[in-house]
């Protein structure tokens, strides 16, 4: 539980209003929901699995404070770019597998799962939490399709998520450095 809940919450916040969410929405408008969800799930499992494996491999090399600092940096690096508005709209993907693989490898969710796997030294639970977080963030645009985001203030949700991630990351970093 020590790795599932932090990964779930952090990944869900990091994916709010992001490129992957917009990509899922664009793909869901043109294709049936189940294939889009299936491709998203497979690419997410692959990307987060690699991250968790790397996190568990590096865990023995780090002190507990270094692991906490790594988790804090992951949250800061996930939240800070969310404060910059996205400029161009996402086009519907022509190649679903390639588009989702590109969006899932090297993103903030992967860094969060990497840091959580290193911090808690439980890679499987970090992957489960990350996949649940991605799923929770992607289901609304996929299932609501044309009604999403509708009247939901997506930019406000994204800014709130960014502030929560950065604040939590700063708190973890400061406590890891023993400044408080």
Report what the structure shows.
By secondary structure, the protein is an all-alpha fold. Helices cover 73% and strands 0% of the residues. The two termini are 26 Å apart.
Number of helices: 8
Q: Mind describing the biggest β-sheet?
A: none
Order of helices and strands: HHHHHHHH
Share of helix among residues? over 70%
Distance between the termini: 26 Å
Low-confidence stretches: none
Structural class: mainly alpha
Nearest-integer average pLDDT: 86
**Morphology:** globular
Number of strands: 0
Radius of gyration, CA atoms, in whole angstroms: 16 Å
The share of residues in extended strands comes to under 5%
What's a concise summary of this model?
The chain has about 180 residues and is mainly α. The protein is built from eight helices and no strands. The longest helix is centred in the first third of the chain and has 26 residues, at about 35-60.
